[in-house]
Write a structure and sequence with these properties.
The structure is a single chain. With about 375 residues, the protein is an alpha/beta fold. The protein has 13 helices and 16 strands. The strands form three sheets. It has a seven-stranded parallel sheet with strand order 8-7-6-9-10-11-12, with helices on both faces. A five-stranded parallel sheet has the order 2-1-3-4-5. Helix 3 packs across helix 6.
């Protein structure tokens, strides 16, 4: 029996995929797994009984990844599960920024008591006129799940699309339209594109990437869209550019005092992935990851440990070890098992940065004394009997 705790409401469509072998608990000290969306976990004391944290979404800035890794807690996210919802918001943002639809709607609301509203609208509509996006240049910075969808959709809408991502995966590259122009220097996007949309994670290397200098290098009248993280943009510099007209519009999904009410800024209340479909998809993926990890020891889509898969556990015994990525670990594991007359039928080891993960299939179940000896090895963070 496994127990799980939800720090936020999680879609019932996902939770329904948990079997009768899973029980919800309000006591984190009894939980094997934590399911979370936006709740901050940085000030939480996460007990050692927790084996995994699954974020029903892509961003994990609300989770203390290093602290979890040091406790042998595998943190999952759900990349791509909410991509379509965000993609649709980005496309909507481009259309709203291109034609003053919001301004026109607000003007009509102000004139709703005017009996001559129809004739007056014909006279006033020019002030809300804009441009079409067809034929315009769109720069997509970051070609992950969301960025790739935005780029492909923009191609279908007749835009000239430029994509920048030095870390693009082979899988994503295959999914991209051949009409997308791949750019090796992001400065080309700043210089040449009419619309620029950001789809990169918030890292030290990306924080403030839209700086005063990069804004200065952009085309006059550029439209900037940010549905990733607000700290990617120097918003003080951006507000100045909006005031001067250097930047035509800024569309962002992150409300804060700097941009709320700023000139030529369209701010939405973090609606990117707020659709029933996205929440369902994220919950289903998170539950699938948790189940495969707890029941089989497999890791997919972890942000602090490597992907590792030995399939469904069909053998007599399986042990998993979360440990630091240092030399001579495997030989120590095999010595402990060999001394206990435990024959290894299969084994795999993967690493990611400072941490590593080892899965060992045995011809008979491991006993508590063997687990204690494995836990005593320097550098071992957590040992678990899967079966």
């Amino acid at each position: 029996m496994f127990q799980y705790k939800c720090l936020n409401p999680i879609s019932s469509v996902g939770l329904e995929r948990l079997t009768s072998n899973y029980k919800v608990t309000d006591d984190i000290n009894q939980a094997d797994a934590i399911l979370v969306r936006s709740a901050s976990m940085h000030d939480m004391e996460i007990p050692s009984n927790v084996k995994t944290v699954a974020r029903a979404g892509a961003g994990v800035n609300n989770i203390p990844l290093d602290k979890c890794a040091e406790k042998g807690i595998v943190v999952f996210n759900t990349p791509g599960a909410n991509a379509n919802g965000v993609k649709e918001m980005v496309i909507a943002g481009m259309l709203l920024a291109s034609r003053d639809i919001v301004g026109g709607i607000e003007w009509i609301e102000q004139q709703k008591e005017n009996e001559n509203i129809g004739k007056l609208a014909e006279k006033q509509k020019k002030q809300f006129a804009g441009c079409e996006i067809k034929g315009k240049r769109l720069g997509v910075i970051g070609l992950g799940a969301i960025g790739a969808m935005v780029a492909n959709t923009a191609i279908y809408l007749g835009m000239d699309v430029y994509g920048y991502d030095p870390y693009i995966s082979i899988d994503t590259a295959w999914k991209l339209s051949r009409e997308i122009k791949h750019i090796s220097n992001v400065e080309e996007i700043f210089r040449d594109c009419d619309y620029i949309t950001l789809h990169v994670p918030l890292l030290e290397s990306t924080k403030g990437m839209i700086s005063r200098e990069s804004i200065a290098s952009m085309k006059d009248g550029v439209v900037l869209l940010n549905f990733s993280r607000d700290l990617l943009v120097d918003e003080n510099a951006l507000v100045e550019a909006l005031e001067s007209g250097k930047v035509k519009k800024y569309v962002t999904d992150f409300a804060n005092p700097t941009v709320a009410g700023a000139k030529n800024t369209l701010v939405t209340p973090h609606l990117g992935a707020s659709t029933e479909e996205s929440e369902d998809n994220c919950a289903m993926m998170a539950v699938k990851e948790v189940r495969d990890y707890l029941e089989n020891g497999n890791i997919h889509n972890s942000v602090n440990y490597p992907n590792c898969d030995m399939g469904q556990c069909m053998v007599a015994g399986r042990v998993t070890i979360n440990h630091r990525n240092v030399v001579n670990m495997i030989s120590q594991f095999t010595k402990v098992l060999g001394d206990a007359d435990m024959n290894i039928s299969d084994m795999t080891n993967k690493s990611k940065g400072d941490y590593a993960y080892t899965m060992i299939d045995l011809e008979k179940p491991a006993q508590a004394d063997i687990i204690q000896k494995l836990e005593a090895i320097e550098g071992v963070l957590k040992v678990r009997i899967v079966k």
